[in-house]
TrEMBL record:
Protein name: Uncharacterized protein
Lineage of source species: Bacteria, Bacillati, Actinomycetota, Actinomycetes, Micrococcales
Highest taxon, organism lineage: Bacteria
Organism: Georgenia satyanarayanai
Region feature (Disordered): 28-48
Length: 67
């Protein structure tokens, strides 16, 4: 497993303050279909997932993937 395929392992206190830039919802750790880590929005009205690259969440709306 390469470094980019490791779980997000973002410090819990950091994850607690991060929010989806589109909906403002809480983010939880997940895994993309290709096995890479991502942060998933908990917003039921518009669930989105954001990639985590080299341990850094990419919280840009244009990088989001619809769930």
């Amino acid at each position: 497993m390469s470094a980019s395929e490791q779980p997000a392992t973002i410090e819990p206190w950091v994850r607690d303050i991060l929010r989806c830039p589109v909906t403002g919802a809480e983010l939880v750790e997940g895994t993309a279909p290709d096995g890479t880590p991502e942060l998933r929005s908990t917003a039921p009205q518009r669930p989105l997932a954001y990639p985590v690259r080299d341990g850094v969440p990419v919280l840009l709306a244009e990088e989001a993937r619809e769930l």
